[in-house]
Amino acid sequence: MSPWLVVGLGNPGPQYAGNRHNVGQMVLDVLARRMNGTFTSHKARAQVLDGRLGTLAGGAPGPRVILAKPGSYMNVSGGPVGALAKFYAVGPAQLLVVHDELDLPPETLRLKQGGGEGGHNGLRSISAALGTKDYVRLRVGVGRPPGRMDPADYVLRDFSAAERAELGVTLEEAADAVEEVVTLGLDKAQMRLHTA
């Protein structure tokens, strides 16, 4: 059984760490704490953590999961993600990409498999590298920019103080959603998340 590959999108470097665009990587940091592990460098230009996530029915350890933060900029995430999927022999159904979503209000989470990229260049790059859009996405809402602000500028800004006050809860809920996808399956995880 191939492992799950869970990718958190974002840009590399400390100057981007608090940006809205990096919320996917923030979710992976929560998951890494749950797995009691640390990220290490991988030849596919990524930071990875290979371990088990969650608990299965009966108390057995959860499935093998590779958490991955591409070391490339967001818009060219496809190279590292494609290389990791090949290295770990992971097909689209076992790939979960966590990313920021302008079209969802802050604190809103949505799971889906396949579909369009909604103008998200990171997803577009991954779809091109994989030759398919049929992978799982966890969309983490960051809301639309205020007034006439360029969306590109908005996602490259840090969360506001008010947003940060709620962000910890959202990140934990997003990590819960990832854990449920890998332990319960996408359908059950969607039902729990979307009807909560």
Automatic annotation (TrEMBL):
Keyword Amino-acid biosynthesis among record annotations: no
Locations listed in the record: Cytoplasm
TM helices/strands, residue ranges: none
Catalytic activity reported: an N-acyl-L-alpha-aminoacyl-tRNA + H2O = an N-acyl-L-amino acid + a tRNA + H(+)
SUPFAM superfamilies linked to this entry: Peptidyl-tRNA hydrolase-like
Assembly and oligomerization: Monomer.
Name of the molecule in the record: Peptidyl-tRNA hydrolase
